[in-house]
Design goal:
The protein is built from 14 helices and 23 strands. It is α/β, with parallel strands linked by helices and about 575 residues long. The strands form 4 sheets. Strands 8, 9, 12, 13, 14, 15, 16, 17, 18, 20, 22 and 23 form a 12-stranded mixed β-sheet that branches. Strands 1, 2, 3, 4, 5, 6 and 7 form a 7-stranded mixed β-sheet that branches. It has a two-stranded antiparallel sheet with strand order 10-11. The N and C termini lie far apart (about 50 Å). Mean pLDDT is about 90; it is low at about 175-190 and about 570-578.
Length: about 575
């Protein structure tokens, strides 16, 4: 084990009064007040990265605690939605969703040479503690040679923010070379202690096809589409009213999102062979924001914001171990990356990654103003694609180390062999093919692979996103001489579950490994051209499949890719009727 060492805390921001009160402290390095939060954030984080040894500066992970910023930004957006609804109008582009906190990390990546992993924690009461525990644990275990922890705190007397950052290194400050793959010169990839691996022990899923991964998988193989007309709220002012809505109706006084999660969690624990969550469980919740007291009377606000007394949605996990992450539609994959590191460095024995997307006017209005929704239905990877079909559902993934699963006699579903998360690129809603390819490249390197048997694409059905993803795959294919690696997407079947979008993709990957069958792409008519991969319209058998690459991308430069591997165990009988 390595003893971590924290350097001087660097402070800046856009709140002059908060900074002035700190200038007399000798233990802090206080920067000049920034004109904008983005500029102040880049200034403080650049200064923190400059305190690291030169070889570590470009790739050190940044973990940001940003509860205040997330609450404030979401509250402003919900208020604009309420005003538009009261006036019977659609949102204007100027009223679109305020940039998520991850976009501050994107600005850092654009401003200089840093291109390491970036993570945003928005957990009520505990985000900063969780960020510090992560850095201390990961460096102690040798997963990283350096990390930077930062915090955004809102000025209670104004609209400004204080930004604080501290570099953390191994005690001797000496850089070490990473094991398990690197992402390029100067970057230290997350390492895996010798003999350790993280496995998926259980999954749970609820989609428009009903409860359970089996219902989803059979429908996907059959090419079915769970399309219907939106009835959760009045959608008359929106461009599209076609969605993939569940039949779940919550009990009176309970938000739909919580009913969805309860169903998915029950299946995941059952599949993992657990009657209840064990002690020392990390709960990672992808994409849901904390309580928003300023707009608590907004209709159906509990579908996007947690209730005031949130307790992890029922399982009794202590606040310090109940994490909220905010990375737009890639939140689930970022949650897997965090869970993996906490398990490998011993901060938790079991990790449960949870995501839910209950149809609500606020998420829908954001996609509407960006003109991201299809007026017909999503057709991923199709030349005639015109946007996303929003889906409803929830997913839960149980992870643990391979050693722990073996000790309790449980056979895991798959191994999480490699994962890469990056907040980078340009623009709010455009996928950057170069950054997407970098994530795939790093995930492959961490897993020790140069090719895969199958790719489950993110492919939401947008004009730019689908094309950029295929371009990124072709970049990797050209580097490793891929020849027709199959790729498909579920989103034409169950819709885009937004910040919970990774969960159906994981279930599809796990079932493909188990059944040795590759799913097709429902809704696909004329596939986009690609040189090194081939888009599947229909399902097909794949004897001996051992590896699946899963992509998960989101607005605001959130990019992720990961490798699931498993030993082929003999193909099960499969037919079009399931």
């Amino acid at each position: 084990m390595t003893a971590p060492k924290a350097a001087t805390v660097i402070v800046g921001g856009t709140a002059p009064r908060m900074l002035e009160d700190l200038r007399s402290r000798r233990d802090l390095s206080v920067r000049a007040t920034g004109e904008t939060l983005g500029a102040a954030f880049v200034d403080v984080l650049s200064a923190a990265l400059d305190r690291l040894p030169v070889p570590l500066r470009t790739g050190a992970p940044v973990v940001m605690a940003a509860t205040d910023y997330c609450v404030s930004a979401t509250t402003r957006y919900v208020s604009r939605c309420a005003e538009a609804e009261a006036g019977g109008r659609r949102l204007r582009p100027s009223e679109a969703m305020t940039p998520e906190p991850a976009q501050l990390i994107q600005e850092l990546a654009e401003a200089g040479d840093w291109d390491g992993p970036g993570y945003v924690l928005i957990s009520p009461r505990a985000a900063t503690l969780q960020a510090v525990r992560w850095a201390w644990g990961a460096i102690s275990a040798g997963l990283h040679a350096a990390m930077v922890v930062c915090e955004l705190v809102r000025d209670p007397h104004g609209d400004g923010y204080r930004v604080a950052a501290v570099p953390v290194t191994a005690g001797d400050g000496a850089p070490s070379s990473p094991a398990g793959g690197t992402g390029g010169a100067g970057r230290t990839a997350a390492r895996r202690p010798a003999g350790s691996s993280v496995v998926l022990s259980g999954t749970g899923l609820v989609t428009a096809f009903g409860d359970g991964g089996t219902a989803f998988w059979r429908s996907l193989l059959d090419g079915r589409r769970g399309l219907c007309e939106l009835t959760r709220f009045d959608a008359s002012r929106f461009r599209s009213r076609t969605v993939c809505q569940t039949e779940v109706e919550a009990e009176h006084g309970q938000p739909t999102r919580r009913a969805l999660v309860d169903r998915a969690r029950s299946e995941a624990l059952r599949e993992a062979g657990l009657a209840e969550l064990p002690d020392r469980t990390l709960l990672v919740y992808a994409g849901v924001v904390p309580h928003l007291p300023q707009v608590s009377d907004a209709p159906r606000i509990d579908e996007i914001a947690l209730e005031p007394g949130w307790d992890g949605d029922g399982p009794g996990v202590a606040p310090r171990d109940a994490v909220l992450m905010a990375h737009a539609c890639a939140s689930g994959a970022f949650g897997l990356a965090m869970a993996r590191e906490w398990l490998l460095c011993g901060l938790a024995d079991t990790a449960v990654v949870t995501g839910v997307s209950a149809l609500n006017a606020y998420d829908y209005a954001c996609l509407d103003v960006l003109r991201a929704t299809s007026t017909t239905a999503a057709r991923p990877f199709d030349e005639g694609r015109s946007g996303v079909t929003v889906g409803e559902g929830a997913g839960v993934i149980v992870l643990e180390t391979a050693e722990r699963a073996a000790a309790r006699g449980h056979a895991p579903l798959a191994t999480l062999s490699g994962i890469s998360c990056r907040v980078a690129g340009q623009g709010i809603s455009r996928l950057n093919a170069h950054t997407g390819a970098a994530c795939m490249r790093e995930a492959l390197a961490m897993a020790g692979l140069t090719t895969v048997d199958y790719v489950h694409g993110h492919a939401p059905g947008t004009r730019q996103g689908d094309e950029a993803e295929l371009l990124a795959l072709d970049q990797i294919g050209a580097e490793h001489d891929w020849r027709g690696v199959p790729v498909s997407s579920y989103k034409g079947a169950a819709g885009h579950l937004l910040h919970a979008s990774v969960f159906p993709g994981v279930v599809a990957a796990v079932r493909a490994l188990r059944d040795e069958v590759l799913p097709g792409t429902p809704g696909l008519r004329k596939p986009l051209d690609a040189r090194h991969v081939r888009v599947l319209r229909d399902p097909e058998p794949c004897d001996g499949i051992r590896s699946v690459l899963v992509n998960n991308f989101g607005f605001g430069g959130n990019n992720a890719a990961f490798l699931l591997t498993g030993a082929a165990a003999g193909r099960r009988e499969w037919s079009r009727d399931g």
